[in-house]
Design brief:
- It is a single chain.
- With about 270 residues, this protein is an alpha+beta fold.
- The protein has 9 helices and 11 strands.
- It has helices spanning about 5-15, 55-65, 95-110, 120-140, 145-160, 205, 215-230, 235-245, 255-265; strands at about 20, 30-35, 40-45, 70-75, 80-85, 165-170, 180, 185-190, 195, 250, 255.
- The strands form 4 sheets. Strands 1-2-3-5-4 form a 5-stranded antiparallel beta sheet, with helices on both faces. Strands 6-9 form a two-stranded antiparallel sheet.
- The protein is globular, with a radius of gyration of 19 Å.
- It starts with a helix and ends with a helix.
Length: about 270
């Protein structure tokens, strides 16, 4: 953070950008609208260095604009991405649940491309969750029964060791990470890429509370996604359960909606 102003200046000079005011709803990276030398509207994204963002540029390059925002250039040294701008940029979450599901059902198969070995694997990510979840649970003051955590870890280990065909996955494809655009109607952003089986790729949508945070709404997403995409419902349910628990901790605190979703998923066969 101390060097952020210098990084922004260096990237602005490199790409000869006229910068606007940062987007207010960017919480991890610094994301700034800009104009390039031709006057085209672009986006400068300065990433917080983190393992989840290390291969974001590689994923966007692999998709090459097919269902995802297009990568225009990448400054690896400064963790900076120059991206096409989604205009008008409305969030998919504002469209309603059924429209949102229509869009992601169209996007997902286009994002599930064959991926290079350089991307982190879902199996390795699960291993990291298993190592850290007990400590995060203790740090949060053991806020729910340990049996729920144990069931999640058991499910994650079993799923990770028995996966189907590996593809490139957008690990965080929820309604606020898909934006309305001009080149295509909707484009995905902020992928947190992994390589693993398709069923895991449904997890963030199944738990997307912006499309309705009730047991009925969540189960409807599970049923519709697995049916229309031809995926194993039980594996999808268990992946969503496992990720909801794994992502249910933040700084030693529990995220209540994630835990509610986890309970709905594990209580429903």
């Amino acid at each position: 953070l101390d060097g952020l102003d210098n990084i922004v200046a260096a990237c602005s000079d490199r790409w000869n950008l006229q910068l606007g005011e940062p987007f207010a709803d960017s919480y991890v990276s610094l994301v700034v609208p800009a104009a390039d030398p031709t006057g085209a509207e672009v986006v400068l994204k300065i990433q917080m260095p983190h393992r989840e963002s290390d291969t974001e540029a590689d994923a966007l390059r692999a998709w090459d604009g097919n269902g995802a925002v297009r990568l225009l250039d990448h400054d690896r040294e400064h963790h900076a991405l120059l991206l096409e701008r989604c205009i008008p940029g409305d969030h998919l979450s504002a469209t309603g649940a059924e429209t949102g599901l229509d869009v992601v059902i169209d996007l997902l198969p286009r994002l599930w491309v064959t991926a290079a070995e350089s991307f982190p694997s879902l199996q390795d990510e699960v291993g990291r969750w298993i190592r850290h979840l007990p400590g995060e649970f203790a740090e949060a003051g053991e806020p729910f029964e340990r049996s729920l955590l144990d069931r999640a870890m058991e499910a994650l280990v079993d799923l990770a060791s028995s996966q189907g065909e590996p593809v490139l996955l957008h690990q965080d494809l929820h309604g606020d990470n898909v934006l309305r655009a001009e080149r295509e109607s909707w484009l995905a952003i902020d992928p947190k890429p992994l390589v693993g089986e398709r069923e895991f790729g449904l997890s963030p949508i199944i738990r997307s509370y912006e499309f309705g945070h009730t047991r009925q709404a969540m189960l409807h997403r599970l049923d519709r996604l697995t049916s229309e995409l031809g995926l194993d419902r039980e594996r999808s349910r268990l992946w969503a359960f496992g990720q909801a628990v794994a992502w249910g901790f933040e700084g030693g605190k529990v995220l209540p909606r994630h835990l509610e979703t986890a309970r709905w998923l594990i209580d429903h066969a």
